[in-house]
Amino acid sequence: QVQLVESGGGLVQAGGSLRLACTVSGRSASFMSMGWYRQAPGKQRELVATITRMASTNYADSVKGRFTISRDNAKNTVYLQMNSLKPEDTAVYYCNGRDWGDYWGQGTQVTVSS
Fold first, then answer.
1. In 3-state terms, what secondary structure has residue 109?
2. How many CB atoms lie within 10 A of CB 57?
3. C-alpha distances in angstroms, 23 versus 12, 43, 65, 71, 73?
4. How far apart are CA 98 and CA 100, in angstroms?
5. Distance (Å, rounded) from C-alpha 11 to C-alpha 16?
6. Residue range 12-48, pLDDT digits in tens
């Protein structure tokens, strides 16, 4: 059974940083395309960043230059480094992994105070 577990969320002031981690169990993450999505209250879930098996990355325009997605296949973990956080980054952040299936974590709350 494939499981994705996020960690690293919390409360931070505007301009601060957080690093989220997503650890995969039940399958090697090296065979998966991974991504981070977020959902703010009253809004639809949206893409934040993705990273392919070959470590090619893609970012939402709203986070380009501030967020960095990376992967450590030896640790079966994907990271999202978030810098220069803004109140509008407040959301539940979800990890996603895809191979021949589509898998989601339970989410971790990120709150940015102004």
1. strand
2. 14
3. 22, 26, 24, 10, 10
4. 6
5. 10
6. 999 999 999 999 999 988 899 999 999 999 999 999 9
